[in-house]
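One record is set out below.
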Amino acid sequence: MNLKAPLSEDTVRSLRLGQEVRVDGEVFIGRDEMHIRALEHRREGKLLPVVLEDGILFHCGPIVRRDSRGWNIIAAGPTTSARMNALEPDFIREFGIRAIIGKGGMSRPTVEAMRQQGCVYLALPGGAAVLAAQGIKRVRGVEWLDLGMPEALWIVEAKDLGPLIVAIDAHGNSIYEEVDLKVQENMAAVRRRLGL
């Protein structure tokens, strides 16, 4: 299934845990410093240079090259999303994003914000930076480049970005938590068998 940005809440809430999707349309790329600046702007009553509502946010520090035709994304490996755990619940609520692309999952407070607002987490395997870059067809723009290339806010156009897995759905379910629970159950069974 291809998701076309911007996303509606109904579309996001219809996605199932474990479902494979790809992304088309506008995607915002940003990580820690971009989150901090956006939230500071909101607290100070300043407008952001882009409208994030109903958008897709990719946790990524891209490698970008500039030539006579403009910016080109060379590699777009996902950043470990847990780095944004302290910022993401407020970011989701303040800016109304509908999907986050990243790796490694996110905290329970973030999962709850996703459930409340109608947002999903789409997992992209680590080590797939060049593959992910192939799904980015052009750079539409960049903001806050003073933060540095990997921390700036990149606005890109995606086509068949993926494959991505719905790893946290908009109903509070998380593949990461399910796997953790299964591991704990298996460890308890092993301890019982060993008499520990």
